[in-house]
Write a structure and sequence with these properties.
By secondary structure, this protein is of the alpha+beta class. It folds into three domains: 2-114, DNA Polymerase III, subunit A, domain 2 (DNA Polymerase III, Chain A, domain 2, Roll); 126-248, DNA Polymerase III, subunit A, domain 2 (DNA Polymerase III, Chain A, domain 2), CATH 3.10.150; 252-378, DNA Polymerase III, subunit A, domain 2 (DNA Polymerase III, Chain A, domain 2, Roll). Helices cover 16% and strands 41% of the residues. It has six helices and 25 strands. It has helices at 7-17, 71-80, 131-139, 199-209, 264-274, 325-334, and strands spanning 2-6, 32-38, 41-47, 51-57, 60-63, 65-70, 85-90, 95-100, 103-108, 127-130, 156-161, 166-172, 176-183, 193-198, 217-222, 226-231, 234-239, 256-263, 285-291, 294-300, 305-311, 319-324, 339-346, 363-367, 373-378. Helix 1 packs antiparallel against helix 2 and helix 5 (264-274) runs antiparallel to helix 6. The longest helix is centred in the N-terminal third of the chain and has 11 residues, at 7-17. The chain starts with a strand and ends in a 5-residue tail after the last strand.
Length: 383
Amino acid sequence: MQFVIKKSDLVRELQTVTGVVEKRATVPILANLLIEATKEGLQVGASDLEVTIRGVAAADVSKEGSVTLPAGKLYEIARSLPDQDVQFKMNERNQVTIRCGQTRFMISGQPRDDFPSFPEVDEKNGVALPGKLLQSMIERVAFAITTDDPRYALQGALFLLDKEGVLTLVATDTHRLAYVSSKLDLKGKNEEIRVIISRKALSQVLKMTADMDADETIVMGRESTHIFFAIKDYKLTCNLLEGTFPNYENVMPENCATEVTVPVDDLLAAAKRVSLLGSDQFGRAVQLELGQGKLELSSKTEVGEAQETIPVEYDGDEIKIGFNARYLIDFLNVVGSPAVKLEFNPLRDGEKPGETNPGDKPGLFRPMDEGMDYRYVVMPMHL
């Protein structure tokens, strides 16, 4: 194997695929990247047995071949090189020489045969989706995916594309739920797709769509045991998560007795400041007190007290409710709207305002910008 590649192309390729590599891989070779020099250029792949990614970059290949090399060290080496062409040459016993200008590295690899195979991807079985829209929708739910619940169905986001072309993403950690839905202009007949996609796979999709133009599309499809995304020169696959996703429709309130509109920047800054006295270990609880013409945020801990008031247009009954500050901040960081609507005291069928305590019910937050149907439901904290 022997090829020459631009340093910038090499770094970009490695930066994209190394996100799949496990830092503490239980199978040693999974800490490596698969490097293949072919007539099409340089192909780089990574796998953790559940998520795989393959990309191709332009390279001058003088001798085809393949090897696996340590992902972390290879990326560090590539970033450190001078801004010149980089030459790779494989020697005996899977050792690879890397030269760039006056710099030379020798790195030991492992043979291609020990690396897991990649699932087959047939883009003809997929559907073209607007890349930037998908990126925006993933950003609005990914933060709500659980990080510590053992149930597989909660370790990813529900991805639902119905026959009418409505795309819906939902994520929950049982304490909060993020829901976003948008009607797509899809051509041809669509088959319904309903799958649960892991947090890791969604993070990779975000990375690969970060620099896409507004009119660029990606191809997404489902095979028997996995879902795939074809994004530019990359193909990402992930195993389908088993289990049944919770019935999210029953969680989202249809009507709330109280609502108020608040500027995002003011609410985000206040939530960050007021939560400073809290402890990350136990969650930084913040109380929201809605009264005549004001929304007051406050916190009280063994360290001290904090309080901040935001002027709002409101003249209804006073409401006090507590939330985990991180849950508010996560939402406000991605909401993408200059103002948000906070809704409290959700009402069930036949229920009237004042019959129950609003502080015991979830809050519903949504952006004022109605470009997408974005809803965020948060369970309250008892302070």
